Prior knowledge:
This protein is α+β, with helices and mostly antiparallel strands. The chain is 38% helix and 11% strand. A four-stranded antiparallel beta sheet has the order 1-4-2-3. Helix 3 crosses helix 5 (139-153) and helix 6 (166-180) crosses helix 8.
Amino acid sequence: MPRLEDLKKFYSLMDRLEDNIGGRRTLGETRGGRHWPSKGVYFFFEDGERRTGSGKEDRIVRVGSHAVSEGQTSTLWPRIRSHRGRLRSRNGGEPLPLRGSNFRKWVAIALFVRNSGGVFSDWPDITGMNLRDMWNLNQERQRRLESAIRAHMWPMELIFVPVGCWKHRACIERNAIGLLSEFGRSNPVDPPSSRWLGLEGHRRSERINGSGLWNDEHVANGYDPQFLDMLERYVEHAG
């Protein structure tokens, strides 16, 4: 099975990357500073999600990057910060969410579906909302939603590989997602656990449900195994 061998190679590279950058970082404890490369690709792990076919270790649940088109100038740390959320508001009051993270949006929707008979029972249906609508909920609902998101996301761990070239970032992101994705595969290698939050059924999560990833792009596109050689070169120079 070529994909199985490619997954084993990919996760071997992730082990080397983790060693080279000094280990994983917990999302809730991340801070800005010089220890972040300007440009890169990141990989998230989630508590309770383990590989079952390519190994027995933790399974990657999200791949992402930034500035993957010519002329874009965003950097890696603000992208990670958008997933973490703002620590506190400018006026010293309740922390407010940053609004540019689809990762947080998908988690929020899945949490809403899972808890629609409990803490969110008196809410309007948010599964069809875009980010702007979601964060225009009244302040109390924003606070409750933000608390639920942080409780789930902040314990997640991440690693990153510095990649300066935008074309290479785009290539690694797209192909890593295609390799890891179980979307449409009759014989999945590393499917999500039955408890994985992303499996919560709602109308906008078919690609997340099917892929086992908190990604809704590139999950059905397959991958070119040659990207692993490119990734390996960047891993060797990381840290």
